[in-house]
Amino acid sequence: MRGRPKLYTSYTTETALFPTTLQKVMIGLFLAVLVLMPFDLPVINDLPLVRFLGDNSWLRPVNRMLIFAIAAVGLNLLSGVAGQVSLGHAFFMGVGASTAVLVGGASTSRLWGWGLPMWIWLPAAGLVAAAVGVLVAPAAVRVRGLYLGIATIGLVFIGIHLSRVFPEIAGPPQLGRKWPRLELRFWKEETPFVDFSRKGHWLWFDIGNNQKTYLLLLVILLVLSLVAANLARSRTGRSWAAIRDRDVAAEIMGVPEFRAKTTAFAISSFYAGVAGALFASLSGYMYPEAWNLLLSVEMIAILLIGGMGRISGALMGSFFVALSPRFLEESVRWAAEQAEGEGVFAGIWDSLISLGPSDFGFISVKEMAMGFPLPASSLDEIIYGLLIIVFLLFEPMGMFGIWIKIRNYWKGWPFSY
Amino acid sequence: MTGLVLQPGVVALAGASGLDIFVQTFAKALALGSLYALLALGFVLIYKTTQTLNFSQGALALTGTWFMSMVFIDWDIPGRFMGGPTWFHWFMALLVAVAVTAGLGMVIERLAIRPMIGEPLFSMAMITLALEVILRTVSFDAVYIEARILGIPWGSRTFMIGGAWIPWSYVAALLAALVAFAGTWMFFKTRQGIAMRATSFDQEAAMAQGINVHRAFAIAWASGAGLAAVAGVFASMPPWPAAGVASVDGAFFVFRALPAVILGGLDSVVGALLGGLIIGLVEIFAGQYLSSYSHVLGVGYQVVVPYLVMLLGLLIRPYGLFGTKEIRRV
Predict the structure, then answer these.
(1) Is B72 within 8 Å of B100 (Cβ atoms)?
(2) What is the ipTM of this complex?
(3) Which of A149, A154, A246 sits opposite B122 (nearest CB)?
(4) Which of A47, A113, A220, B9 has a Cα-to-Cα distance from A267 of 20 to 30 A?
(5) Does the distance separating the beta carbons of A85 and B266 come in below 8 Å?
(6) Please, what sign has the CA dihedral across residues A138, A141, A147, A149?
(7) Contacts of A150 in chain B (CB under 8 A)
């Protein structure tokens, strides 16, 4: 009877993160591939997807994806597990980023900054964002559902305004300021202990800055996801789920609503703060207007596309949302090559792609084109909107739901049940 | 996202008395409030009937304004078929543009909203947010190359009350809102209007009474989208910064009207009117009379004032001033 799916003989096995041995092995292999992905290794380089995702030019969007995943895992705790709709995630990311730049940034005549090392500014970004989350949480006890969602939209606008009131922290509007680099120092000494933004030599590998950043972000994401997964199955997580499913019933059963919502907001904001600080550091230069509603919507979209309430859903969704612009850009470039070439399908591609000003087609090959034909960036926005609609209409559980369907199909194969 | 369609500038006239400035500010506040109320009315009609919070209202406003410009300027729709004064053509073109936008609203309802009836409220709201992304991107690309002209008959003309200059556009916005609210009120007295109210009260019970619920949904979305187009056109008139053009900022208008909807209550027509007017008054008066403190409050503080009012209002009355309180059962 051992190893049968869904057969649990004790509580420990039922609440285990990875109940079966097969799952443990698969996760181990997956992690090994993830760690080795950016390096030039014989077997790893031949795997599909990994083959090009590990390339240096792809690592930047991949790093972006990892940061999005950190934020999405946090939002998943709040919206997916605790059921509190929040469109204010960008605000908390902005709070984290501002804290990071205040604690870790350089001080000039116009800007404030204490120049402290990363092991201080990264947790500080999370903690300050969590503190702000605690301040906001009481409103969530009083305001419910859609009203709460819109109230959190208000936070985003107030946040952008606050960044204008304090240009000493956020930098001048539209311009921003330089952000603390990703480098580990013990204190304020000259040469950093590990510098993630320069090339270097680790063990017997030559390692580029993108690879280094990738590994750093991967470690942070893995640790934070593990914490989130464990939180979700702990007493706190169960109280969140109870509040989500029926708050009045939960309260009658002795689950403190106020405490559950406050912890949910605090912890989710912590994730957002850390992600915001990293996001800003990755681009090196960030203006305060970046923490806008579109970012919040993107976070919610990650959850919806990936699957609400699941950590694996948040991870899959961020893979999709963060990398799809790059995928689309590549495919437009590929299609343009096809259209210019001599193949059988050249005519079809040519009718889709507009190569020059007079060429027919609705996709433009130019980077910064405006108006029709659409540039790849606009096309990406449209596809992204369509995807949200399609997923909500046909697969409300998101990519996680698709995965469950595939798994169940093979579990019962050749029977349909 | 910080694009501001109606950045309320500070009224400053050489030699204008305090009373004149007050009259001028009041007129402007009423006009802005009417525009907010127009958008809010569309929100409320859609929310009441289909339980959908329509985030795409602003994008529909932009799309409607774009249609208006296409119909009137590019295609010259009524003008090429008939003679008569230009202002008459303009109003005919407005009707055509509103009808086209209403048709778009019905298509959206049929394709994206109707299959979702009964799903969680938040999923429906997210669908409209995705629609907002699509509509905004398409309209944005359509209007980006050149700001489009709307050919408003009264242009930037003004008239005087005492020493205060008041643009005709303010009066137009106020009249548009009056007509829309009076029309809604009258519509609710008709047979179909009563059917719609029944639908918003309880969909299943209405169905059991033989009411065509699907038609009610279609009408709600058509009128909501049409109202958005009207609001978009009337918000693109000269004294407002988007003067006379369908501009990109139009789509973000919706996020400025949200406080009005929420303050009034998501499902109350009266709430939409009062919420819009209150938010308009607060925003313009704060912009005018607190401008000497802008070094403390920050540039553009008046844009945040509606959100602060909304948050405050929500803490005092969690379902808005006139919204129906949700009854929570175990």
Answers:
(1) no
(2) 0.84
(3) A149
(4) A113
(5) no
(6) positive
(7) 53, 258, 261-262, 310
